Amino acid sequence: AQSVTQLDSQVPVFEEAPVELRCNYSSSVSVYLFWYVQYPNQGLQLLLKYLSGSTLVESINGFEAEFNKSQTSFHLRKPSVHISDTAEYFCAVSLPYNQGGKLIFGQGTELSVKP
Amino acid sequence: GAVVSQHPSRVICKSGTSVKIECRSLDFQATTMFWYRQFPKQSLMLMATSNEGSKATYEQGVEKDKFLINHASLTLSTLTVTSAHPEDSSFYICSALAGLLGRETQYFGPGTRLLVL
């Protein structure tokens, strides 16, 4: 079975500072990895994903995540955050869907960017 | 691309009534859709997997007779909460599976907030 652990439930940070949201997963087989962002009272938006290939993936708004197989991690980073990045961030894993995969979510990390 | 909508966005109903929530994939066809439930300050809990033209697969502990799922077309899945009670109040989110085989990704709707009085 797969599981996801987000190590920080809340991350307060000042505007323009760098941030890292940590995510570790557990799986005995290869998985897909995702980061989703949820703004208040909204659904989830896909931020970035790792399916295969390059272990460093980037989003269009400056976030990046690196798949580290040896450490079973998929930490999310941004070198300089904005107030508008304040949201809940969810890390998730899944098996390929043709293998019966379903998204398994971490508990979420609340990123709070202060001026 | 890969836009998913939900309707209604918010619904208030009396205890004992039934509520239907629609989930639509707007610019793609989705053979598979998912229904989640989210309590305040918590993560998403998968309720069921909805496959077009077949019965939904429910997760353990989810009452299939209470949460009726219909996936009658490749762009529409509905969740009906039957005889709703206050404990059913929650944020319900659907997602639809899109992408090439082996590179599928779930795209989420904006959610429906249900309040049962």
Produce the secondary structure layout:
The complex is a heterodimer of chains A (115) and B (117).
Chain A: E1 3-6, E2 10-14, E3 19-21, E4 23-26, E5 32-38, E6 44-50, E7 56-58, E8 64-68, E9 73-78, E10 87-94, E11 104-105, E12 109-114
Chain B: E1 4-7, E2 10-13, E3 19-25, E4 32-38, E5 44-51, E6 57-58, E7 67-73, E8 76-81, E9 90-98, E10 105-108, E11 112-116
On the 0 to 100 scale, the average pLDDT of chain B is: 92
Unreliable spans of chain A: none
Fraction of helical residues of chain B: under 10%
> How much strand of chain B?
over 45%
Assess the beta-strand content of chain A as a share of residues. Answer: over 45%
Helix content of chain A: under 10%
The pair of chains with the biggest contact is: A-B, 20 and 24 residues
**Overall form of chain B:** globular
The H-and-E topology of chain B, N to C, reads as EEEEEEEEEEE
Quaternary class: heterodimer
Which residue ranges of chain B are poorly predicted, with pLDDT under 50 across at least 5 consecutive positions?
Answer: none
Radius of gyration of chain B (Å): 14 Å
- Nearest-angstrom radius of gyration of chain A? 14 Å
> Helical segment tally of chain A?
0
Biggest sheet overview of chain B: 7 strands, mixed
Question: Summed up, what is this model?
Answer:
The complex is a heterodimer of chains A (115) and B (117). Chain A has 115 residues and is mainly beta. Chain A has strands at residues 3-6, 10-14, 19-21, 23-26, 32-38, 44-50, 56-58, 64-68, 73-78, 87-94, 104-105, 109-114.
